[in-house]
User: What shape does this take?
Amino acid sequence: MMDLETKKEAARKKSLGELGELFALKTLVDKKFDRIRNLNDNTINEPFADIECEKEGLRYVISVKARNKCQKNGKLNSSLINS
Assistant: This one.
């Protein structure tokens, strides 16, 4: 059985992922994409991608990744150092 800290961490990570998807959806709307569809609305944790959309007759399938800026020890995540 999961302890309270494990449940809290799982909920935090889920919230972070959902927030990343919301930012991506807003950006696509702002950039005038059409037929924007969150693939996770029908299938939770769609394995291939998160969002499907179109612009100027081209179809896009997008995978969204959201992560913390810092690790638990306070250091920057290595993938963000050169960003």
Summary: The chain has a mean pLDDT of 86. The chain is about 35% helix and 20% strand. Residues 6 and 12 are 10 Å apart (CA to CA).
